Amino acid sequence: QSNQESFMNGICGIMALASAQMYSAFDFNCPCLPHYNLAYGLGILLVPPFILFLLGFVLNNNISMLAEEWRRPQGQRGKDPAVLRYMFCSMAQRAMIAPAVWVSVTLLDGKCITCAFCTSVPVDTLGNASHPRLSQGEMKRVLARIPCKEIYDGEEFIANEVAIRYLRCISQALGWCFVLLMTTLAFLVRSLRPCFTQAAFLKSRYWSHYIDIERKLFDEMCAEHARSFAKVCIQQFFEGMSTDLATARCHPPRKAPADAGEAAEKLLGITDQGTMNAALKSWHRCKPPLHLHPLVLPSSNGWAGEKQPPTHPPAPRRETAAYYSRV
Amino acid sequence: MDHFRMIFQYFQSNSESVMNGICGLLALASVKMYTCFDFSCPCLPQYNMAYGLGIMFVPPVALFLCGLILNRQSLVMLEEWRRPRGRRKKDLAVIRYMCSSIMQRAMVAPVVWIIVTLLDGKCLICAFSSSVDPEKFVGFANTSPMQVQQLLAKVPCKDDELMRNNTSRKAVSRYLRCWSQALGWSILLILIIAAFLARWLRPCFNQATLLQARHWSNYIDIEQKIFEETCCEHSRLFAHKCILHFFESMRQEIKLHSFGLPREGEGAEGEEDLLRGITDQDQVNKLLKMWYYEKPPLDVNQV
């Protein structure tokens, strides 16, 4: 449990750092046009957090576990909605951290809000009192250029630095308020839980951890089973091949001397180039069915690898082979 | 036994070291945040004070709350405080001890922020430049009251066109910075003396109660950790048994449904054991389908 939680916390921390790094690497370019500013500024403020939130869910391994537990038919095991809620809440809490970091860093930096709201600066209070009146549209066009210092041409209405300082002050105030709000919420969520729902929480935590472990153990056991299945299947394939070929070429499978030991076993009855090539070709052209013959004890003649193939009636073949002349 | 002892020692030393580590990291993070933060005073009469004092006091509150959230012991303390009495008495001294140790650790990062802010001086210059007495400074003594407020408000902004080469601006700035740094160093000195006295004089008062409180607060922490570890182990064993049961019941069902199956060898080889009677593609598919559609009940008593 501690391992799983530390791992998830680690991913959460890495995503938060990645989001701060992404912001500093991002080349912010305010369009400095009246209607585009607001769209661009608010877009940069709100769209990446949404993407980061979804990414937080995607990178969380437990999302598939939650979906599986939610959608499975009831069967013999009841479903507990409290467990599902617990899993969803803990995933959502972790996924919220990176977007919150992006929004805080954006607001504290100030460029987005400056870009988005520069047309709403109160020129009357901040600007020079004596300036020629301009039409609304013209004023907006002039104010929209505030973030782009090189092309700003409204010094007589309002100084560029004054406007930028004003907007940045508001942005940073919003940023710090947002940070305070998020920390207060996190604190309340964490501290109210032991006061009200501790017993239910312990139950949900245990069963959500149980579901996770059960799924992992089941996957492990299935992998083990698949391994054994594959081993026996291939073993039976080789035996089948060697017996088939021996019958087709009308000579008995060569008996290894009784003291050949392990090496002979591993050869599985295939001891010459032609047989091996035929085996490889058959493996490609005609894979064996996924059906294992029942396993029997090894027979006493030392052929641990050769079993009686149950699909062929053994007695007649043996009799046929017995009459073959080696001349 | 050795195993348990090692675990105990690890948990005990680990808990306090981890908390001290987090406390230190948070303090470093607060300094780093301050240096990364781009302080820009608005230089407007009504906004300066709000901005300056806001930057000085709002982040510390957020850092304090962060310090409480990141500290695992605060959850343990809350649980101990709110739990029903049951068969174990509640000792308020232990809860008080835990609370005070949590608060002390959580206060480090906010205090570091405030001191760094004061020693740097920008916040106080921004907040109080309009409150300076203009008579003391040559450049501002002869201006009208309306204008003097505007001018004083612009003192923190060095690059403003009005303030660019104004020597009185530098005078005001230096004056406020001097006050700010004096305040910062005084607060630092007072805090260090208080911490020193608290640590030195503590053994003179209630040492026995303190030892008891510390022991039992450690105990509660370790007990909770071990409970969680035991629950983990239990759920692992439970899951293992549950899945083995499931495979077994599948094997029984297959035996019941298929009549023509040849006798399996006695003395099973290792492979057969692992195959658990599932030897066919259809059987495997059926097992996987059953696992999804009908998970086995959470009951391993049916041996």
UniProtKB/TrEMBL annotation, chain A:
One CC-aspect GO term: plasma membrane
Transmembrane segments: 7-26, 38-59, 173-192
GO biological process: ATP export
Region Disordered: start-end pairs: 301-327
Localization in the cell: Membrane
Pfam family, one: Ca_hom_mod
Principal location listed in the UniProt entry: membrane
Membrane topology note: Multi-pass membrane protein
Any GO MF annotation of the entry: monoatomic cation channel activity
Keywords: Ion channel, Ion transport, Membrane, Transmembrane, Transmembrane helix, Transport
Family, as annotated: Belongs to the CALHM family.
PANTHER family, A to Z: CALCIUM HOMEOSTASIS MODULATOR PROTEIN, CALCIUM HOMEOSTASIS MODULATOR PROTEIN 1
UniProt name for this protein: CAHM1 protein
The organism of origin for this protein: Alca torda (Razorbill)
Lineage: Eukaryota, Metazoa, Chordata, Craniata, Vertebrata
Gene name of this polypeptide: Calhm1
TrEMBL record, chain B:
Bilayer topology term: Multi-pass membrane protein
Keyword check for Transmembrane helix: yes
Compartmental location: Membrane
GO (cellular component) term, any one: plasma membrane
GO terms, molecular function: monoatomic cation channel activity
Any single GO BP term: ATP export
Origin superkingdom: Eukaryota
Chief place where the protein resides: membrane
The keyword Membrane appears for this protein: yes
Pfam families: Ca_hom_mod
Coiled-coil segments: none
UniProt keyword terms in alphabetical order: Ion channel, Ion transport, Membrane, Transmembrane, Transmembrane helix, Transport
Chain segments annotated as transmembrane: 49-71, 92-115, 182-201
Alphabetized InterPro entries for the sequence: CALHM
Similarity remark: Belongs to the CALHM family.
Protein name as catalogued: CAHM3 protein
Originating gene: Calhm3
